[in-house]
Amino acid sequence: MRPARSHSAFVVAALVVATTARAQPQLTDSERRLVAVLQEDIPQILRLVGTPGLNLAIARRGGVIWEAGFGWADLERRIPMTASTVTHSGSMGKTYTATAVMQLVERGQLELDAPVNRYLGGWTITNPLGGREVTVRDLLTHRSGLAPNAAWSVRRAPTPLEAHLRRAYARERNDFYGGAASPTWSAKAGEKYQYSNLGIATLGYLVQVTNPERLSFSDYVQKHIIDPLGMRSTQYPPVQDSLHIRPEIWRRMSRGYAGFGTARIPTPEIYFEDHPAGTVVTVPRDHVRLLLAMMNGGTLGGYRLLAPETVRQMLTPYQQTGTDAEFEPSGVGLVWNLRDWNTEQRSFEHGGAHMWGWTNHFVAYPDLDLAIAVFMNQWSLPDDGQGARYREARLVIDLVRGWVSRERANTPRHLPVRSWAWKVSYVQGLMMVESTNGALGIAERFSRTDIDKMVRGAAPRADRYRTIQWDPAGFRAGVADLSAAELTPAGIAAFLASDRLQVLPEELPLIYLELGGRGNLTDTRPR
């Protein structure tokens, strides 16, 4: 049976790359093949997770090599997502705030291990649980003792930063459920990692009161980070509205959606009083430039953002977090999350989300000469936590990382062009063999008659977008390929790592998502 030709308007748009996608002239042959894979696979991600739109930028060799938009920036008005669509980046803005703090540390305006109270000028922050005073470093590493909070989200115009901070620190309870769910403080300074928007907002206030030009936090970041890095479509406003964002940026803003199963509901206007914790509005090609500067020892385009030693400090693991099994950072530097830091796959990164409509991620792999920013205009609810929130973006990121890793290892994959239905059916064939001959331990392999019977009796169902992912030829190929392998965990792993596998290894998680699960072919638990 062939895939159904009928598609909803959403799927039709999602399956086409926006016309503003641009492949830069410096693409290598391998990168051109990667782009072709992304153009095929990203629409499948949108279809599977229900996200209206996605845009991204991939950078190598000191600059963006490819950027694109997929799907919709606004469903109601049928505005396509393009490479130039602006997003609310959420907590990714924390990396700008940390950069501003470290610029002032370099200039002697702040000291990393000085008490925060030294700089407040007339009011103080006191951790009621005792211990030493909270330092600048404590706030940068989320070890101040402040409990997690919701960025003091409001539906009205936010209170000016200093007045907000004074009021927030005067309260014994934070903003979850009107203060009923959590105290403001839940540990002594330095005792443990606890992600705090209020702590990062406090750092933004320190930038505001210690910079010698007496610029507001937003103006300081614009002058010393955004503009000199050539981020022409980026601002860090105190309020994310048309009064505070430049018109040429505001009119390209995507609409965010809360995803409730099959329903996508436009997010209401939500503002953050903790605005230095995450109100950057930007596009992927701009945002990735901060990663490029950090990868280049603090310099980009002739501008020295930070000294190399400062970059090293920011990217030194200070502690294990152990707070989110899905996210699994191997440590936290100064704001940056660090993964696999002692391997060739090491990365520094940060996610970001704006309630309840945008989830984003950007990551740099220094040893792979690779940086990626991925923005999506949906926040799925119920929310299963930080790891799940960014899983959709990581499907794209991990595909790119895997491709570049194999390129660096001189083990590229040159696969024939296959339809998505063929790939899905191929993996169904693999899983049928693994489940029968592997998990059940049945030695007898499927005969041609067995396979014909399965294909003849197959009854594939259309999904909610009226598409059918079934191709008998793919299923037959999958059965044949894995039947020829040694069906032990080690043998299956060897097959998946070999050239005999006829899909990309990085496509497997996405195909399993298509099939309704997140398992893997080496899972030997009884079914």
| Strand fraction | 5-15%
Number of helices: 17
Average pLDDT reading: 90
Termini Cα gap: 29 Å
Structural class: alpha+beta
User: Low-confidence parts, pLDDT < 50 over ≥5 residues?
Assistant: 1-20, 321-328, 519-527
Rg over alpha carbons: 25 Å
The major beta sheet can be summarized as: 9 strands, antiparallel
Shape: elongated
Assign a percent range to the helix content. 25-40%
Number of strands: 18
Keyword list:
disordered N terminus, 34% helix, single chain, 17 helices, three-stranded mixed β-sheet, alpha+beta, 527 residues, nine-stranded antiparallel β-sheet
Characterise the protein shown here.
The protein is an alpha+beta fold and 527 residues long. The protein has a domain at 420-514. Helices cover 34% and strands 14% of the residues. It is built from 17 helices and 18 strands. Strands 1, 2, 3, 4, 13, 14, 15, 16 and 17 form a 9-stranded antiparallel beta sheet that branches. Strands 8-7-18 form a 3-stranded mixed beta sheet, with no helix packed on it. Strand 14 (337-339) and strand 15 (347-354) form a beta hairpin. The protein is elongated and about 85 Å long. The model is unreliable at 1-20, 321-328 and 519-527 (pLDDT under 50).
